[in-house]
Design brief:
The protein has 324 residues and is an alpha/beta fold. It folds into two domains: 117 residues, Rossmann fold (3-Layer(aba) Sandwich); 183 residues, Rossmann fold (3-Layer(aba) Sandwich), CATH 3.40.50.720. It is built from 13 helices and twelve strands. α1 packs parallel to α13 and α5 packs across α7. The structure holds 2-keto-D-gluconic acid. 2-keto-D-gluconic acid (8YV) binds next to loops.
Length: 324
């Protein structure tokens, strides 16, 4: 008998075909919205699941799913997983690192540039038919090249952004991370470690790329925003919960910082109306990894994690160790 797996959200047809050749697949291709009960009910019939960052796997869900052995997240972030609870329940957790690093860094940089150079705001202005003549200060924004880029969280994606900033745009790159990078890596990236407060004080553009866990909830709040230059921009491509959105909205409204570019939100897919009302923000719907090629690689890696685990007992990119 083939193991039964749940594909939580719609996926590339090729990947679904691959999964069907290995498993008895319960798929959600129509993209029905899961309620907490239907989610537990669907998962409880399965031995494995291909999940996304919005699908929770916690002690309550696990208690309803005694046959579950693996959840393969199609995301590098895994804050939807309670990994200790999964380990205790002997459920393997996997994610999709590496395959999305460069694509996500591209988007982080695009969002930084769009925010600093006021691209969304100026496009709305043009579409509204309000462009009547040239002016010296029409949508004059902040300089990107040669400015100071502050990166909070210096993992794979942070380093890829640093490389773009230092090598492509001649930026001075400063970063803050719990652990410092080896000197040779700092040299290669041309990045300098600074304390967290100095990062907020010195950067012209702050980019957030740290992984989310409850310990970094609201890492950027009123006091961090107060340290930033009034001309500075803030970009978040990590997780919404890292920023205190209410404090950010107040800072943007009062122009205590210049602008923000956000791909992630505290209550996504709901977006705080306070953000929607601002013109000094660029808002995108959690698409930093969204190119066809990269999403395909993420889906293939998640599928391979399931296939390898059920055929050979080992996954490609495990997050925990689970005894058989
Ligand atoms: C995903 C992400 O698109 O990989 C991550 O951690 O945030 C995005 O690439 C999203 O989590 C859907 O799974």
């Amino acid at each position: 008998m083939k193991p039964r797996i749940l594909v939580a959200r719609p996926i590339f047809p090729e990947i679904l075909d691959l999964l069907v050749s290995h498993f008895d697949v319960l798929s959600n291709q129509p993209d029905s919205v899961w309620t907490p009960e239907s989610w537990k009910q669907g998962l409880s019939q399965c031995h494995g699941a291909l999940t996304t960052g919005a699908d929770p796997i916690n002690a309550d869900v696990l208690a309803a799913c005694p046959n579950l052995r693996i959840c393969a997240n199609m995301a590098v972030g895994f804050n939807n997983f309670d990994v200790p609870a999964m380990t205790a329940a002997r459920v393997l957790a996997t994610n999709t690192p590496d395959v999305l690093t460069e694509t996500t860094a591209d988007f982080g940089f695009a969002l930084l540039m769009a925010t600093a150079r006021r691209m969304a705001e100026s496009e709305h202005f043009l579409r509204a038919g309000r462009w009547t003549q040239w002016r010296y200060d029409l949508f004059a924004g902040a300089e990107v090249h040669g400015s100071t880029l502050g990166i909070l969280g210096m993992g794979r994606i942070g380093q890829a952004i640093a490389r773009r900033g230092a090598h492509g745009f001649g930026m001075k790159v400063i970063y803050h991370n719990r652990s410092r990078l080896p000197q040779v890596t700092e040299g290669e990236l041309r990045a300098t470690w600074v304390g967290k407060e100095d990062l907020f004080r010195q950067a012209d553009h702050v980019v957030l790329v740290l992984p989310y866990s409850p310990s970094v909830h609201h890492t950027v709040g009123a006091s961090e925003l107060a340290l930033m230059k009034p001309s500075a921009t803030l970009v978040n491509i990590a997780r919404g919960g890292i920023v205190d959105e209410a404090a950010l909205i107040a800072a943007l409204r009062e122009r205590r910082i210049s602008a923000a570019g956000l791909d992630v939100f505290e209550g996504e897919p709901q977006v705080n109306p306070g953000l929607l009302a601002l013109d000094n923000v660029v808002l995108t719907p959690h698409i930093a990894s969204a190119t066809i090629a990269t999403r395909m690689k993420m889906a293939k890696l998640a599928a391979d994690n399931l296939i390898e685990f059920f055929s050979r007992g080992q996954a490609m990119t495990p997050l925990n160790e689970v005894s058989a």
